[in-house]
Design a protein that fits this description.
It is a single chain. The protein has 300 residues and is an all-alpha fold. It has one domain. Helix content is 64%, strand content 0%. The protein has 14 helices and no strands. Helix 7 crosses helix 9.
Length: 300
């Protein structure tokens, strides 16, 4: 399906319009949410508050990944240079992300989605799966096994720093610098112990919410091997709480992103509403709840 056949020239121009102001707002709000969580945990130092803060920090770490993805597509801001700078220096370092390496594989995913050559296919090819198998995956994430393997990979890269490519060394160096800044800022505020919640969110929560987001996007879709994105990709019409936990910054509109990757993330909701109103989604069912969605992709 080509969405350009459904939209007027004016509508296409409106959804493809990029805004430095909107991009800056998303980046600033991302960091302000992180700061706000640290402030609350510092003001109310108790185990329940810190556990809740760690969970929410994990979702915010997912938000950094979403913004890396958007900068990699060069759609968050109007100019490629600003997308590259913010992606590499501001939003990729908190999660040890290498934006350029990530985008090389991600662009292949876009090019090959709906085929057996999709490089991301192993992540969702087997869905639907049994309820027991799904819970084993989620338990590995929540118990820290998945995150610990990721952290070990970071450690191996640090120990082999001199043998990494210049690109990988740069990404790793920026990540280490950013994490030092976060630790020093918390130390200056008198709460260095809160850096532990940042690390725990990376190990225990980020893998869990990332998996749920990924399964929601492509798991148990109508036809994984169809070239029609309406059949191989899913959007979720979720409420604000579900979006905050599993799909920050509008990434729940993943079908629209595959239909038109050049549309900025802050315009994907408008694209969804336009296509819905024009009948492009007639006969389609959209999930509204991530819990229900997980049940739907593991029916037995």
């Amino acid at each position: 399906m080509d969405p350009k056949t459904w939209l007027s020239r004016e509508e296409l121009a409106s959804v493809m319009q990029r805004s430095d102001l909107k991009g800056a707002f998303l980046v600033a709000s991302q960091w302000l949410q992180v700061i706000a969580l640290f402030v609350v945990m510092a003001a109310y130092p108790s185990l329940p508050v810190w556990i809740l803060g760690t969970v929410l920090l994990g979702s915010r770490l997912l938000g950094f990944g979403i913004l890396v993805h958007e900068c990699g597509h060069r759609t968050l801001f109007r100019t490629p240079a600003l997308n590259d700078f913010v992606g590499r220096w501001i939003v990729a370092p908190p999660t040890f992300n290498n934006m350029r390496a990530y985008m090389r594989g991600h662009l292949e995913h876009h090019r090959l989605a709906g085929t057996a050559e999709d490089p991301d296919l192993p992540n969702y090819r087997d869905y639907p799966i049994s309820r027991d198998r799904l819970w084993r995956k989620l338990r590995r994430d929540l118990s820290g096994q998945t995150g610990w393997r990721t952290l070990q990979g970071v450690g191996r890269n640090l120990s082999n720093y001199s043998r990494l490519s210049p690109e990988a060394r740069g990404a790793l160096g920026r990540a280490v610098l950013m994490n030092i800044v976060v630790f020093l800022a918390l130390t200056a505020a008198g709460v260095p112990v809160l850096y532990l919640t940042w690390v725990l969110a990376y190990i225990f929560i980020l893998p869990l919410v990332s998996r749920i987001r990924q399964v929601a996007e492509h798991g148990a879709v109508p036809d994984l091997y169809s070239m029609d994105a309406r059949k191989n990709t899913r959007s979720v019409r979720s409420n604000w709480l579900m979006r905050a936990l599993f799909s920050p910054h509008g990434v729940n509109w993943h079908l629209e992103h595959h239909l038109m990757p050049s549309v900025p993330i802050y315009n994907l909701g408008r694209l969804h509403r336009l296509l819905t109103a024009k009948g492009a989604y007639d006969g389609m069912r959209f999930e509204t709840n991530y819990v229900h969605l997980l049940a739907a992709v593991s029916p037995r």
